[in-house]
Specification:
Order of helices and strands: HHHHHH
Number of strands: 0
Distance between the termini: 35 Å
Shape: elongated
Bound molecules: protoporphyrin IX containing FE
Number of domains: 3
Radius of gyration: 21 Å
Number of helices: 6
Structural class: mainly alpha
Length: about 170
């Protein structure tokens, strides 16, 4: 009975994780479309309804990212098995024996790196816009902060795409 409850509990957490992930992906797509469309297609700054949609999905996205960071941090921590070739080199140099099973494990280092990059890039992405809303900064710095937001968003998008490709490749294996 208790085993079946723990099984049920585990699957609930898994469903929650998938739900948060899907909401995060959906809000990211909305943010990217509403942010990049005026800049890249129309050649102007984001205005009107697009700002409203962008600003509505931004806190949803930030919240989901915070939850995912907590849920996946343990899974994405760096371990000695992440660089098997380096471990083998150290063993050869120090003439010691290593854990063969751990070295052969598929550790998906790229996925871990892109995960942490997403988490760290979210800080300048959010902070740049938050700071630009304070009257503390003059027009020059507000423009600069918006530019930081835009360029961080470009890098952020590339990292998200690489992370998704690695995730899909891993699932397909
Ligand atoms: C962390 C959550 C985010 C917040 C709080 C946020 C907030 C904002 C706000 C308020 C603006 C309008 C700024 C203005 O016109 O003065 C803006 C613009 C923009 N955002 Fe975001 N955003 C977030 C995430 C994202 C993401 C994930 C992307 C793309 C992947 C993105 C891409 C853009 C772009 C390209 C612009 C237009 C910049 C420009 O007009 O030069 N944002 N954002």
């Amino acid at each position: 009975m208790s085993r079946s409850i723990s099984k049920y509990k585990r699957s609930l957490v898994d469903y929650l994780r998938i739900l948060v992930y899907l909401v995060a992906v959906f809000s990211f797509v909305v943010l990217a479309l509403t942010g990049f469309y005026p800049v890249l297609v129309l050649g102007e700054h984001i205005t009107g309804y697009l700002v409203m949609i962008h600003a509505t999905f931004a806190p949803v996205f930030a919240g989901c990212l915070a939850v995912l960071a907590v849920m996946w941090a343990r899974q994405c921590r760096f371990t000695p098995g992440d660089l098997p070739w380096f471990e083998r080199l150290v063993q050869r140099l120090t003439l010691t024996e290593g854990d063969e099973a751990r070295q052969n494990r598929n550790s998906c280092l790229g996925q871990k790196i892109t995960f942490w990059l997403i988490i760290f890039l979210a800080l300048p992405l959010g902070l740049s816009i938050l700071l630009s809303m304070f009257t503390l900064f003059g027009t020059y710095w507000q423009e600069m902060l918006l530019m930081i937001h835009r360029y961080t968003a470009y890098i952020f998008t590339v990292v998200v795409v690489v992370h998704t490709v690695l995730l899909l490749r891993m699932r397909a294996k």
